[in-house]
Amino acid sequence: MNLKTLIFLILTFSLISSGLIGISSPAYAAHIYKQTLDVEVGGNIHAHPLIEDYLDKNSLNSRFDFNLEKGSHIYHLGSGKGKKILICGGIHGDEVQGSLTVVSMLYYLKSQEYTGTIYLIPFAIPIDTEKNTRYYNQSGNVYDPNRKSDIPGTPVNKILKFAISHKISYLIDVHSGIGVKEEGMVYYGNSFEENWAKNIQNNTGCVIKTNPTNGTLRSEASKRNIKAITLEVEKINQGVDVPVQTELNILKKACVYLRVI
After folding, report:
1. Ramachandran region of residue 225, left (φ > 0), alpha (ψ -120 to 50) or beta?
2. pLDDT in tens, 18-43
3. Mean pLDDT of 135-143
4. In the 8-state DSSP scheme, what is residue 255?
5. What is the largest CA-CA distance in the chain?
């Protein structure tokens, strides 16, 4: 070690010790801030037997407040600085595996080191989860909510507006569907999202596809320069526990790629 290097190290150590130079380190989600996102979509998610069984079996009821009859909740982890990521589940109320994956991720992050700021919406439209339906009834107008995220006043447009106003850089929309292979699936759009999806595929064996669809949260977010992907697992043939664990693993790998966990 030469004299210049030694002097540099001594000065650097002195500045760190004095507090003039800070070292960034991962944070823990010891405190999770919760707010109501949309008061118009409130519902009793506990009325869905698969959800109540999963929450009880995994002791999640006692750890988080999922009383959503007065509106959907969004959970904030972090200081609002660094990379900002939004993870959303439950846009389709009959896709409980997606919602429970986000719930499980919330529980996981509670004691996990992370960087940046992470926002989670486990149940985007609680009333549809209560009714176990894919379609949202807005004053008699019944429609697929994930085809109208570009329409002001719709539930998913409110999520999109939140993402824009909070300067979200990355969005992960979590679903379940029919005919999905047991390894799960990731949908992507642009080149960054494709590389993101390929990395997840290499680490999980999931299928990846590109399928831009106007009006979906993923596509509309991507149009606004928010990097976005959609996760899918099977919702019919495998029950709840196995798909949720499969999708949770995919979700974790998605976050590892972004270097937030």
Report:
1. left
2. 333 333 346 655 578 999 999 999 99
3. 97
4. H
5. 78
Q: Which element (helix H / strand E) includes 63?
A: none
Residue 23 has a pLDDT of 34
The b-or-e profile of 101-137 (16+ CB within 10 A means b, else e) is: bbbbbbbbbbebebbbbbbbbbbbbbbbbbbeeeebe
What does the alpha-carbon distance between residue 224 and residue 160 come to, in Å, rounded to a whole number? 10
Q: Are 213 and 219 in contact (CB under 8 A)?
A: yes
Joined tokens for residue 56: 């009880």
Hey, where are the domains in the chain? 24-257
pTM: 0.88
Distance from the Cα of residue 47 to its chain's centroid = 23
- CB atoms near residue 47 (< 10 Å): 13
Q: Classify strands 207-210 and 141-143 as parallel, antiparallel or unpaired.
A: unpaired
| Confidence at 226, pLDDT banded by 50, 70, 90 | very high
Continuous H helices in the chain: 3-18, 49-57, 96-109, 126-131, 155-165, 191-204, 217-223, 241-257
For 188-204, write each residue's pLDDT tens digit.
Answer: 999 999 999 999 999 99
How distant, in Å, are the alpha carbons of 77, 230, 246 from that of 113?
11, 24, 21
Residue 144 has pLDDT above 60, yes or no: yes
Question: Thinking of the domain 24-257, which architecture would CATH place it in?
Answer: 3-Layer(aba) Sandwich (3.40)
Distances (CA, A) of 2 to 7, 8, 150, 157, 182: 9, 10, 61, 60, 58
Model confidence at 236, pLDDT cuts 50, 70, 90, reads confident
User: Both tokens of residue 147?
Assistant: 């085809």
In the predicted structure, residue 12 carries a pLDDT above the cut 80: no
